[in-house]
Design a protein that fits this description.
Keywords: Queuosine biosynthesis
Largest sheet: none
Strand content: under 5%
Distance between the termini: 20 Å
Pfam family, one: QueC
Protein name: 7-cyano-7-deazaguanine synthase
Helix content: 40-55%
Number of strands: 0
Structural class: mainly alpha
Shape: globular
Length: about 180
Amino acid sequence: MGSHSTRTTHPHYMEMMRQLSRNIGLGVQIENPYQFKTKGEMLRECGNIPLVQSTNTMSCSHPSGRFAGQGNGHCGYCVPCIIRQSAYLAANVQDRSIYRVPVIGQTVAIDRAEGADILAFKYMIEKTSQNPSYLTTVIRSTGPLGTNIDPYIDIIQGVYVRWTRWLVKFNYDDSIS
């Protein structure tokens, strides 16, 4: 989990960009106002909903449909696609994206390739509920974050609570509560 898919917004990367800006004398401030926001929170706060509903944006980490002649659309089941779908759901904003296998609203077999990332979510939720300090280890493994990682833990724990409800709602694992 962590910041594996978007290293360019990782706090360490942002700090390196700030340092580069200072070193070359650009005189600009680089800020990330969304550092402690989920994608759902950002969608809720967006003032231009038609823009975020654009079907011309891509989140998918493996749009493998292109190899089957289905274009470069969203697969629907990779981590970025799951986060995208759950963000729209959390923000109560209609998702106009087209997914080859939409995981929101239907159950995907977790013993198939399409269920691998859902299984990863399930694993992380179970692992962190059994051993809360594991989340700290995972967060620290994404790269340098400084000394206070509590805000990162808080945001991820909140997301895990929502994902747990989602997993139960769509019958991915009725043992999670």
